[in-house]
Design a protein that fits this description.
The protein is mainly beta and about 800 residues long. It has 4 helices and 38 strands. Helix 1 runs antiparallel to helix 2.
Length: about 800
């Protein structure tokens, strides 16, 4: 007889989830259940009735030894079955939406350390290097999902988070990717959103220490990383179910394939839980992360074979023999400092097993200051053998204060059962951006010239270099209040109907202040002095008048989701769904600023853009619920896109952008020894002709027609595990829909590429595991990210190695 899966209190979405952790009370109950079954079987031989006796004994056992573990799901399944959000009531297999949950078993085995690393495990995601050459928004996790900028749709524990920082995974329990517009989180784009579930205290004590050493085959600067994860129950406290967890991280070193570049960060994340295993639970957590980096703004695309602009079919600007590891910046001037602090208080109470209330308050503040030197577009007109470099200083401070209250209730209305989730959210987001300059007023910002083949990375001095705040600034405030309700109606055992609505009132206020600047006359080229690099000539810069612009907008928007699920068996579902989301002006991409440009979606005079997603699919649990397989066809339409009539110039919002395709995924353990995590997507995009006279034939930027990933590991006898993975990224276009492809523009395409990675690990002792990762086995040169203007790119890491050891007690 096989015991069924225990899902006490059905708390799949509680933050206090113990994944794959044994519980003493549960183990005692299982042993007692086995004893009961044996006794009843023996009694049957004496003439007793098996079923009646079993029912009576099991009921008595449950009364004497109740298993009360709110928030604990004990299962033998290896496939991710639930997400952390309380706004979703059903397991993934019954959710009418494409959801990819990337568990630690996958990304830890790969040696991934950041969200960007983890997201390479799902198709349809591409990365970009920031607008133009600006360093303002080029940091952190910046990416497109299904052809739309999704950097502003990153959530941590269900709360919107700042995208322009590196989200290290040292305090992350799993990464959840929701594809297609989703009404549950309010404002958002067509592509979907990412949610990071933080690590939480658990009832069982453990200690986990990991150290890693990474190095490239090219001899670039090595990197070292150490993490510590300690969970300790506090049995001596008068409060039941108290537990303390502490996560620490430190990472120092370079980047494979790049000279001088460094990524250094450290973090600490303590958390305290009270009431684990009781009806009332309290969680207090805090996380601090600090980055001190030497930022890398990549290579001029004109220097890399295959990416230079073509004139008469030839790469006229391509310079053969350039070392792609060269750093085009100033090591002794450039820096990036990022500080992130997040505090969270979460309260949960179970009135009954069917009625649960939670409240979460989260405060997050991120401060970033960067001085960076980047290759400029002037590379095409620079003297032969030279490349232009431009400097900039940027400072931002983002704060997010959010409170979310959620009520989940299960009830029946006649023969129909309901699983309702409803709630109230209020939030305040602020962004403060003082403007900096690197030269005094009245002096043109110089483009420094360095050798293409031997860039001057350590200049002793820079012409007119005087970093200062100009007095100009941009400050943005976004206030949001929302109510929502989503109900899953179960019509018997085979049909489920999902419906829900979110009403959200938002207001955006932006103050933009500009100080007066005199005209800057044209400057002739300046020769280098000593070790100071020369400069290129500059053109006349018109005077800038003083101005103060206060923009605001706000309204109430509605978004909803509906879905119909048919369950021919308990392990599978077929579904159709219709979801919407709304993106108001001032909340686009990673900028969160309003605009006076008439055709900008962030113009406060325009209506919000609206996304609609049509989807049909199937999901199935296979191999005794150890593997989740899914397939979906979808069509996402972004409507209300502003565009100017090509004849009259009048702006309207009758245009749209459409992405449609198919996506498949497989995740879980086929056997106890064989893990598989894979996905593939085929997509195509269409753009309304009204958006641009050149829109015919254009696609959305950075949308791969085909993309896929596979990661698999197999455990051989005696603790030896081998594994590997492959990633495929189809060709992508960097052109925006309003750009015209011209013969002399910078690189327009990122070619398709394959990446192969390998891994071997060995359980040396009961507590020690050793692992070796070999990344980019074929040493393939590929573009990891490209900026929107196409003149700057970042190559992916060449062949590199990662040695790591894990101690667990």
């Amino acid at each position: 007889m096989r015991l069924i899966r225990i899902n006490e209190c059905d708390s799949l979405h509680s933050p206090f989830v113990m994944k794959k952790k044994k519980n003493p009370a549960l183990q005692r109950s299982r042993r007692a259940a086995k004893t009961t079954v044996v006794a009843v079987l023996a009694a049957q031989g004496a003439g007793l009735t098996l079923r009646a006796e079993l029912d009576e004994r099991m009921l008595a056992l449950m009364e004497e030894n109740p298993i009360k573990l709110p928030g604990v799901t004990v299962t033998d399944s290896a496939a991710p079955q639930s997400v952390s959000s309380p706004k979703l009531t059903q397991p993934i297999v019954d959710a009418p939406q494409t959801i990819a949950v990337i568990p630690p078993a996958v990304y830890e085995a790969q040696g991934a350390t950041s969200l960007s690393d983890v997201l390479r495990n799902t198709p349809g995601i591409t990365f970009f290097a920031g607008e133009g050459g600006s360093a303002n928004r080029t940091g952190g996790d910046s990416f497109y999902l299904r052809g739309f900028d999704t950097s502003n749709s990153i959530f941590v524990d269900g709360v919107r988070d700042e995208g322009a920082v590196v989200h290290d995974v040292f305090n992350i329990d799993q990464v959840e990717v929701f594809k297609g517009p989703s009404a549950e989180n309010g404002r958002g784009g067509t592509a979907g959103y990412i949610n990071l579930e933080s690590k939480m205290p658990q009832v069982k004590a453990f200690q986990d220490i990991q150290v890693a050493h990474g190095f490239g085959a090219d001899g670039s600067l090595a990197s070292d990383r150490a993490t510590l994860d300690i969970n300790q129950p506090l049995a001596g406290l008068p409060v039941k179910g108290a537990s303390l967890r502490l996560n620490l991280m430190d990472q120092q070193g370079g980047v494979p394939g790049r000279d001088y570049v460094e990524n250094n960060r450290w973090g600490i994340a303590p958390s305290l839980a009270l009431g684990l295993g009781t009806d009332t639970r309290v969680l207090v957590s805090y996380q601090h992360q600090y980055e001190h980096n030497l930022p890398d703004y990549g290579l001029p695309s004109t220097l890399v074979d295959g990416y230079a602009p073509k004139v008469a079919g030839k790469d006229v600007y391509f310079s053969p023999g350039v070392d792609t590891s060269d750093f085009y910046g100033f090591v002794n001037y450039d820096y990036e400092h990022v500080t992130n602090d997040a505090a969270e208080l979460r309260l949960e109470h179970d009135f009954t097993s069917a009625i649960k209330l939670s409240n979460q308050t989260r405060y997050d503040v991120t401060a970033r200051q960067v001085e960076a030197t980047s290759p400029t577009a002037s590379v095409t007109v620079a003297p032969a053998g030279m490349v232009g470099l431009a400097q900039g200083i940027y400072q931002t401070k983002n704060e997010i204060l959010s409170n979310q209250t959620n009520l989940k209730a299960e009830f029946g209305t006649g023969p129909v059962s309901h699983e309702l989730t409803s709630g109230l959210e209020v939030s305040r987001e602020t962004a403060d951006n003082p403007i900096w300059a690197v030269v005094p007023n009245g002096v043109a910002n110089p483009n420094y010239l360095v050798s293409i083949y031997d860039p001057q990375d350590f200049p002793a001095a820079l012409l007119h270099y005087t970093p200062h705040q100009t007095g100009s600034l941009t400050d943005t405030r976004i206030n949001t209040a929302a109510v929502y309700a989503f109900d899953t109606v179960k019509l018997g055992k085979m049909w489920e109907l999902l419906g829900g609505l979110r009403l959200e009132h938002y207001s955006v206020n932006e103050l933009s202040k500009t100080v007066a600047l005199p005209a800057v006359p044209a400057k002739a080229a300046a020769a280098g002095v000593g070790e100071a690099p020369p400069t290129a000539p500059t053109a006349l810069v018109a005077a800038v008048p003083a101005s103060s612009l206060d923009l605001s907008t706000g309204k109430t928007t509605a978004s909803w989701k509906t879905g119909l699920v048919f369950k021919p068996t308990a392990d599978g579902s077929l579904y159709v769904s219709y979801d919407t989301s709304v993106r108001p002006p001032g909340t686009s991409g990673s900028t969160n600023t309003l605009s006076t440009t008439t055709t900008s979606a962030d113009n406060p005079l325009l209506a919000p853009e609206k996304a609609i997603n049509y989807e049909a699919g199937a999901k199935w649990m296979l191999f005794h619920e150890k593997v989740l397989a899914d397939v979906a066809v979808f069509k996402s339409v972004n409507t209300n896109v502003p565009a100017a009539d090509p004849v009259t110039g009048i702006v309207d919002q009758t245009s749209d952008q459409t992405v449609q395709g198919v996506e498949v995924g497989v995740s879980g353990k086929i056997t106890d020894a064989w893990l598989v995590f894979a996905g593939f997507a085929q997509m195509e995009a269409k753009v309304s002709n009204e958006i641009s006279t050149n829109a015919q034939g254009l696609t959305l930027p950075l949308l791969p027609k085909e993309s896929g990933n596979l990661w698999t590991t197999y455990t051989i006898a005696k603790g030896l595990t081998i594994g590997g993975g492959v990633q495929y990224m189809g060709e992508t276009e960097r052109l925006q829909a309003t750009n015209a492809p011209t013969a002399t523009t910078f690189t327009n395409q990122v070619p398709a590429y394959w990446l192969f990675n390998g891994m071997v690990s060995y359980v040396a002792t009961k507590h020690l595991t050793l692992r070796l990762n070999l990344n980019n086995v074929a040493n393939r040169e590929y573009v990891a990210s490209l900026n929107n203007n196409g003149y700057r790119l970042n190559l992916g890491a060449p062949r590199n190695f990662l040695l790591s050891a894990e101690l667990r007690f």
